[in-house]
Design a protein that fits this description.
Layout (H helix, E strand, L loop, with lengths): L11 E5 L2 E5 L3 E7 L10 E9 L9 E6 L2 E9 L1 E6 L4 E5 L3 E5 L4 E7 L6 E9 L10 E5 L6 E3 L5 E6 L1 E2 L2 E2 L10 E7 L4 E5 L5 E8 L1 E4 L2 E4 L2 E5 L7 E6 L3 E8 L7 E3 L2 E3 L2 H12 L2 H6 L5
Antiparallel strand pairs: 1-22, 2-3, 3-4, 4-11, 5-10, 6-9, 6-11, 7-8, 7-10, 9-12, 13-14, 14-17, 15-16, 17-24, 18-23, 19-22, 19-24, 20-21, 20-23, 25-26
The structure holds fe (iii) ion.
């Protein structure tokens, strides 16, 4: 494990509270990364946080729905979610597990909770695909908690590397064009964590337990901090204000036009119209018939 040194840490540009909403068949969630932040946080399109002890908030799940043109990353902290697609693939996502799905040219799937009571908590992140990859063959990978790379720093910071690389530890997933970094970072009181970030990459932190300080700015639970892209910076330094848990997410912006209609994210309105037509004609399900594990 390599301990990085950051000379010029990023500052917090803006704090975001997210918007309470519901999606699917009435799942209550907080949309942290909303539509109006898609350009600022390119290549990321959406981050939803869900967490409830009340089954009425989640039990109906997300029945059959399509996706085209981007990737979805689902990270479960607690609870169990069964996913099924139109090609007959299925997998059970449990606490600490990740599903990484490239929707590519088309997937129709459902995401349904597999519990009648107890806590359901997690995140879904949407990562855009470049124009040349939007119509690629769909695939997905499921990772159980113990299959995800993990390390603990000398300061006692426990890090799960879902994507990218941290302290010399490679993540479960590597993607070349958008170069996503996706870390779950658990800090103990008084500890600090440093992570190099290319200045041009867009980056944000979402704190889900406790509070942290970034360049002197306090970031409390259920807040997203957008990190500034000042050209002179070489990373981020996070200091725990008590025990804290947070996601650190970064990636290389695509700089391409974004055209979104619900679960379809393409570059032009014409491509959106094509996606809707393909879905209505049953051609998205055919695409997921070639979904590869
Ligand atoms: Fe979905």
């Amino acid at each position: 494990m390599n301990t990085p040194h950051i000379d010029h840490p990023r500052r917090v540009e803006r704090l975001i509270a997210g918007q309470a909403t519901s999606d699917g068949a009435g799942v209550k969630l907080t949309r942290v990364l909303t539509h109006d932040l898609q350009r600022r946080l390119d290549p990321y399109l959406m981050l939803d946080a869900f967490g409830s002890d009340d089954p009425d908030d989640y039990i109906a799940g997300f029945p059959d729905h399509p996706h085209r043109g981007f990737e979805t990353i689902t990270y479960m902290l607690a609870g169990r979610m069964l996913h099924r697609d139109s090609a007959g693939n299925e997998g059970l996502l449990e606490g600490g597990g990740v599903q990484w799905m490239n929707a590519g040219r088309g997937v129709i799937h459902s995401e349904i909770p597999q519990q009648q009571d107890g806590r359901m908590e997690g995140f879904q992140l949407w990562l855009n695909l470049s124009a040349r990859d939007k119509m690629s063959a769909p695939w997905y990978r499921d990772f159980k908690a113990d299959e995800l790379p993990r390390f603990v720093t000398a300061a006692g910071v426990a890090v799960t590397v879902i994507a990218g690389e941290s302290h010399g530890v490679g993540g479960a997933v590597t993607r070349d064009v958008t170069a996503p970094l996706f870390l779950d970072v658990h800090l103990v009181a008084g500890s600090r964590f440093a992570q190099p970030l290319p200045a041009g990459h867009n980056a944000f932190v979402y704190v889900y337990r406790g509070a942290v300080a970034i360049a002197g700015q306090s970031v409390t639970a259920q807040r997203m901090a957008i990190l500034a892209n000042d050209a002179s910076t070489d990373g981020v330094v996070i200091e725990a204000e008590g025990d804290a848990r947070m996601l650190l997410i970064a990636g290389q912006p695509l700089g391409e036009p974004i055209a979104q209609h619900g679960p379809f994210v393409m570059n032009t309105q014409q491509e959106i119209a094509q996606a809707v037509a393909d879905f209505r004609a049953g051609r998205l399900g055919e695409a997921s018939g070639r979904l590869q594990r």
